[in-house]
Each structure stands twice: as structure tokens, then as C-alpha cells.
């Protein structure tokens, strides 16, 4: 079995109307053996920016701590919060540094940039990378993990442009739950974060535990 699939898990992010959503399952496994049902794969960078990471569980937490350090250094040096686009390039360069012995992870980034004088109405942002940091910005949704093929199929059928926050939550929830039900290495519950200009809505979902 590939190291990318050893611990299982899946992440999906979707664009809405002035909002984004990112969700992951909660299963941690060792091949077909279930180990835990509370393994979160989505982490906050700030109030408007989250990222999810699938792949080898040890690398997930190694990269999480490395990115936390680099974001804190950016915050101290620049005296402002990092934007989603800048963070995506930070993730990309961090992974590319290790291209000859890569981390076995595939991150998905989702967030809203704060309005500025130069850009008073910033658009929502989602992107994903491969194991060596090849960045791909998406205009609809981004997926990663062992259920990626199923997530693509369900998301293609359910996603629509300009979804309101509640509709986006329903769409991403149904996409994730239906996809992980068809993947033996993902599932065991889910967590969904919907990011709007005013707040972040976080909800836990129950799913099949078999």
C-alpha cells in the first residue's frame, strides 16, 4: 500500500458566494485497521484561513508545526495576517524544498482575504498542491485523500456557483459523507468549517462507523 494511503483520510474545499468551506473526515487508520475517530486534518491559520492535509499522519503533524512556525515569523516580520494566496505559496515552497525526499501529504487551502484599498472586494480562494508543492488554484472545489476520486464525482454533481453559506454547508457535507461511504479508508465522522466575512461556522457530522 502507498504511504499516501497508509493512514487514510480525505479533505474537500468548496467556493461559495463570498464564502468558502473546507471539510475532512475524522478517521485515523493503519491500512484497514481503525486506530482513532477524532483525528482532525483541517487546521486554522487565522480567522479567515484554514488548510487541510491528507497523507501520512506523521508528516501531517510535522508540516503543521513547520507551517505554524513560518506563519508566526511572517506575522512578526510583516505585522499583518498572511493572506490565502501568500500562504498557498508558502506551502508550495515549503514542500518543494523537500522535493528529493518529499513529505507524503497533499494540502488543500481555503480562505478569504481581508479587504484592502487596492482590493476592496477580494474573492474567495481555494487551492491544492501535490507532494512537491505544485500549486493548483481551483474555481469550484478542491479535493485530496484516499476518497479523492469519489469526491470529484459527487462534487461535480452537487456543486453550483454562488452558493450561500448554509447551502454551501449542505453541499460540502453531502459531498463528503457520500464519498467517504464509498471508501474503506475514510469516514468515521466529519468536521466542516464554513468561512464567511463575519465568522467561521464549525459543525461536526456523524457518519457510518463500519
For this entry, give a set of tags.
single chain, 210 residues, alpha+beta, 5-stranded antiparallel sheet, 4 helices, 12 strands, 31% strand
Q: Mind explaining what this structure looks like?
A:
- With 210 residues, this protein is an alpha+beta fold.
- Helix content is 30%, strand content 31%.
- It is globular and about 50 Å long.
- The relative contact order is 0.23.
- The model has no long low-confidence stretch (mean pLDDT 94).
Outline of this structure?
The chain has 210 residues and is an alpha+beta fold.
Quick one: overall form? globular
**Helix amount:** 25-40%
Number of helices: 4
- The radius of gyration computed from the alpha-carbon positions, rounded to a whole number of angstroms, is 16 Å
Number of beta strands: 12
Whole-number mean pLDDT: 94
Largest sheet: 5 strands, antiparallel
Q: Write the H/E string, N to C.
A: EEEEEEHHEEEEHHEE
Pick out the low-confidence regions. Answer: none
First-last Cα distance: 21 Å
Tell me the structural class: alpha+beta
Query: What is the beta-strand fraction?
Result: 25-35%
Spatial strand sequence of the major β-sheet:
10-1-2-11-12
